[in-house]
# Entry
Amino acid sequence: QVQVAESGGGSVQAGGSLRLSCVVSIYDYSSKCIAWFREFPGKEREGVAATYSGGGRPHYADSVKGRFTISQDGAKKTTYLELTSLQPDDAATYYCAAGVRCGTWFPKDFRYWGRGTQVTVSS
# Structure
């Protein structure tokens, strides 16, 4: 049974930082693309960052380049998303997903999803 679990969301002031964590319990973890998406109320889910669990170049959406950093600890089957310089426009529900291939931001390309963690940013 595959499980994806996010944690680390919360409320911060503009300019603040958060670190989100995602634990993916899957038998072939080393060959997966782990991605972070976010969803604003009433809008479609959008890709934020992605990385292969076995290492390699990370992928970022243009809107977060230079502010968000994705990393992973293979031994713990955990992927992290460091959010810095947060702005109210970053407030959303952040989801972790596991798929086969990085380089795509289509949610349909990721088979396994967590339930999301809420990030709130006050001005």
